[in-house]
Design brief:
Among the domains are: 2-39, no CATH class; 44-168 and 416-470, Rossmann fold (3-Layer(aba) Sandwich); 304-376, no CATH class. By secondary structure, the chain is α/β, with parallel strands linked by helices. β2 (14-20) and β3 form a beta hairpin. Helix content is 34%, strand content 27%. The strands form 5 sheets. The chain has a 7-stranded parallel beta sheet with strand order 7-6-5-8-9-10-21, with helices on both faces. A 7-stranded mixed beta sheet has the order 14-15-16-11-19-20-22. A 4-stranded antiparallel beta sheet has the order 1-2-3-4. It has helices at 36-39, 55-68, 79-86, 102-110, 124-134, 146-150, 152-157, 172-186, 219-224, 269-275, 292-303, 320-330, 339-348, 363-374, 417-434, 449-461; strands at residues 2-8, 14-20, 23-25, 31-33, 44-48, 71-76, 92-96, 114-117, 137-140, 161-163, 190-202, 230-234, 237-241, 252-255, 259-265, 283-290, 312-314, 360-362, 383-395, 398-409, 442-444, 467-470.
Length: 471
Amino acid sequence: MYRIYSAFRPKGWLYSVLFFHGCAYNNSGNHLHCHIKALSPVNKILLIGAGKSTTVLIEYLKKKCLEHDWHLTVADSDLKLAQNKLKGAANTAAMHINIHNEEQTRTAVRQADIVISMLPASLHFLVAQACMEAGRHLLTASYVDPNIRASAATIQQKGLLFLCEMGLDPGIDHMSAMQLIHRIQKDGGKITSFHSHCGGLIAPESDNNPWHYKISWNPRNIVLAGKAGAVYKSEGRIIYLPYELLFDENRTIEVAGEGLYAWYPNRDAVSYSKLYGLENCDTFIRTTLRHPDFCLGWKKIVELKLTDEDKRYDTANLSYVSFLKQHLAHHRLTDDATPKQKMLLSYLGLYSNEVIDKGLLTAADILQSCAENTLMLQPGDRDMIIMMHEIGCQTGRIQSKIISSLVIKGKNSLETAMAKTVGLPLGIAAVMILKGKIRLTGLHIPIVPEIYEPVLKELENEGIIFTEEKR
């Protein structure tokens, strides 16, 4: 009796060993060793960053490493956080890492076969440099970093796969949309309009504040969302919306079974229309979903420049309401909020006499502190992800609209829907790369069938399933 064990390695070689009566032989029949475990291929996964969105990802990777006898290392600046996420599981290790220490980062990357970075987007390139030097594949959930984009030729020359935008939005939105777009086109349809909506929201049963929102991911990203404005295409016209006009509570859609939500345009949709092959589409919009009251309140926050990152305030003995007065005076603004907007700002604590006392802070820092004090998920809270694609198409003389929707609710404040939908695509892709089911090289986002078909299929096995209707 004999068995052949074969595994695709990320460095591009095929490891194949023949076991006969408990001894190992290579493909030429030469005796290697009699201890099978010593020569079983062990793939090593390095996850850098153990923050809010990694909980489900880590659990998935722990399960897969145990199943395949691989090894997972979770590295974070907070060693205890990494240890707590791993819970002493077999085939895992926690590591302290200072990502700004180049040698420490290089050493950690060299010891892995594939690297997943869950760091803030601005830090991905530090990991990417180490991956290019060591010849390691890299996965992130963030938009493609400009420096990584500039390194595309090097990534390709080294035969590496750098897979970015592999989370929820961006990530699952790309994969589900492209699968639908390609199917429509294969059936002879012409796509005339494309709307893609996604929101990390609070489940109705846990919605108990006037913002109808709780934070399930990086609070800093919430505070700074939309600052670059947005570009999209509507009825053949390119529309640019500056930050000040982005949040409008009157742009709404009805989500079946979930009610009315407001949307605001998300980043540069026009560039994605080209990537999707829909540059001739009359309307192409990618949006973020929020409750209308959230947009009403955030519009006033933007008007009052409370997300400003320039001027710093000494918060020693400074109350929130005193900060607000100083801030408005500095920008020569008046607090002309409507009663409802004042209620929303008051809920955040901006009219509070509580002393901040956190050193020198910008307005954005102080707003983040307010949000963390009032809008964080509580232990029993459930968050909710809503994603919906609305695609108008024409087949012959027949015009129709296809609506593809995803609604996922979290279990609690740790096992969130956000963590599930951001983390699982990364984990699934990493496993498929190590098993040789994804063999692409170069810099990619998940818009090609070689990536989205197997990943979406596995996501369905994990309960992430779209429903579809045609109108």
